[in-house]
């Protein structure tokens, strides 16, 4: 995989490499990100790699309800973008162990300090929809990444994956299709505009 070769070359030039994995919903970002994390863990050890999912920076459902944004969950303004950038900056600095949140899909909520990036981590995989977004707050992400990989996939393949994902999370088929049309696909269009900012474009797994 060219991504693996590129990461290996980068690791020869610097102490810590931050690689972003981005792309539209359902493209296969998480699969690629976790594959890279697992590969590094198996060859270098768990303390040689860190994983930072952007989804951990979702605003809680309670906050989304308060803001009136629950029906748009997943849009750029439903995340703590400034907090995400601040954590990435600490990780890029490399001087401390950094604890990061994850997202629990079973309850649909972010969970604080679920993951850690140890000081020994030479590779940090950052995964999320909006890593290349060039708007205030989000525009602080891209400069912190050594590489940005865009994961693409056929629209129908993505939509089928999303349908299954939403149904598994408790939505009816009709609710899932409505969410895809009104939330996921508009977000996908926004993310597609960041494709040209990626260093590498790969097909989703």
Task: Summarize the helices and strands and which ones pair or pack.
Layout: H1 2-11, E1 17-22, H2 29-44, E2 49-53, H3 61-67, H4 81-93, E3 98-104, E4 109-117, E5 123-127, E6 147-152, H5 155-168, H6 173-192, E7 200-203
Parallel strand pairs: 1-5, 1-6, 2-5, 6-7
Antiparallel strand pairs: 3-4
Overview of the structural elements:
With 205 residues, this protein is α/β, with parallel strands linked by helices. It has a single domain (2-203), classed as P-loop containing nucleotide triphosphate hydrolases (Rossmann fold, 3-Layer(aba) Sandwich), CATH 3.40.50. The protein is 39% helix and 20% strand. The protein has 6 helices and 7 strands. β3 and β4 form a beta hairpin. α5 crosses α6 (173-192). The longest helix has 20 residues, at 173-192. The model has no long low-confidence stretch (mean pLDDT 96).
């Amino acid at each position: 995989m060219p991504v693996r070769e590129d990461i290996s070359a980068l690791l020869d030039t610097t102490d810590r490499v931050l690689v972003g994995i981005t792309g539209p919903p359902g493209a296969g970002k998480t699969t690629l990100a976790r594959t890279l994390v697992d590969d590094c863990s198996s060859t270098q050890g768990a303390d040689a790699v860190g994983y930072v999912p952007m989804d951990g920076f979702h605003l809680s459902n309670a906050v989304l309800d308060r803001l009136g944004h629950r029906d748009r969950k997943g849009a750029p303004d439903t995340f703590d973008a400034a907090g995400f950038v601040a954590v990435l900056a600490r990780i890029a600095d490399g001087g401390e162990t950094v604890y990061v949140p994850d997202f629990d899909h079973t309850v649909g909520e972010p969970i604080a300090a679920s993951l850690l990036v140890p000081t020994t981590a030479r590779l940090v995989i950052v995964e999320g929809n909006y890593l290349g977004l060039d708007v205030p707050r989000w525009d602080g992400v891209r400069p912190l990444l050594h590489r940005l990989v865009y994961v693409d996939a056929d629209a129908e393949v993505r939509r089928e994956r999303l349908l299954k994902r939403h149904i598994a999370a408790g939505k009816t088929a009709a609710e899932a299709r409505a969410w895809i049309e009104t939330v996921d696909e508009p977000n996908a269009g926004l993310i597609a505009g960041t494709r040209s900012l990626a260093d590498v474009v790969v097909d989703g797994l």
